[in-house]
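Z., the sequence and structure:
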Amino acid sequence: MGEKKLEGAGLRGQVAGNTALSTVGKTGKGLTYRGYAIEELAEKATFEEVAYMLLYGKLPTQSEYDQYSSKLKSYRSLPAELKEVLERVPKDAHPMDVMRTGCSMLGNLEPEGDFSNQNETADRVLASMASIITYWYRYSHEGVKVDTATDHPTIGGQFLSLLTGNEPSEEHSRALAVSLILYADHGFNASTFTAMVTASTLANPTQVIASAIGSLSGPLHGGANEAVMEMMKRVGKSTNAETWLRNAFANKDLVMGFGHRVYKFGDSRVPTMKSCLKDLTEWAGDTKWLEIDEIMETSMVSEKKIHPNLDFPSGPAYYLMGFPINLYTPIFVMARITGWSAHYFEQNADNSLIRPLSA
């Protein structure tokens, strides 16, 4: 005889703690980071400025920003031992496993020390993520050993140049930066809560990040933007979109990129990312994906009253930038590592072991 399912199973709707980092879906507000509306940050700030604010508590002055950018650049090089490990990871490995392994290996090679070094470790891991995934990808797929110590002013620019081997366009650099800002933090989502639980045991920072990466690798949390793009490719063209959706409704198939456990009237990040998608569409001269996006969004909202989430416009936006679909979630990691680290700091500042009861 099965047990009765608990009300609020999975902690849905339960308050698990306080945070000064972000607000998600609160009445009258969209997403904010430390009180700043995400729309304003995406329009006016760089990803590095947002990372600094999340990790250090305030937006940087110009001097602080220059120093921080230089610091992150200095951390882009990977130890030889880590490169050797990445070269041994098979081509068909899951990229999220690569990110987790790279993070763990970095922790072995560069021990974090005591809690006073938390910011140094967070900055080192933040600066290394683009290096780790692009070094493995280019080596495993092309046999190329890229020099990760580029002088590009931003993490997004570095990622684009290492992945493609070309200088990034201004349009691609800006669209990627916006997406990194939008993905940087999002309250107590599954991977962030995993990081907090791990942090509450007084585990070291790279163990915290590695556990969060493991949580994000699960398809019920990460990978939705990848699934969105695979879905759009099956739709194929805008004239197929309505029929494809009707069949999905009839078969009760899941339509990826719609709905959210917190937002009930639309994800506040979507308009900003949709604007980037429109800019990329115009720049590329390829309207197909935007047309499919708009037809599906209109139908889902009108017929099902379900709004798109951030993953819906980011999937085709990344596709127009030429990113391999299986690297979409690692890009998420490059962004969310700032939120994970900031929540780690917050947890440690007033720590109590997270240990709920079971019924």
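The radius of gyration is 20 Å. The CA atoms of residues 179 and 273 lie 7 Å apart.

Let me know what you think.
H.
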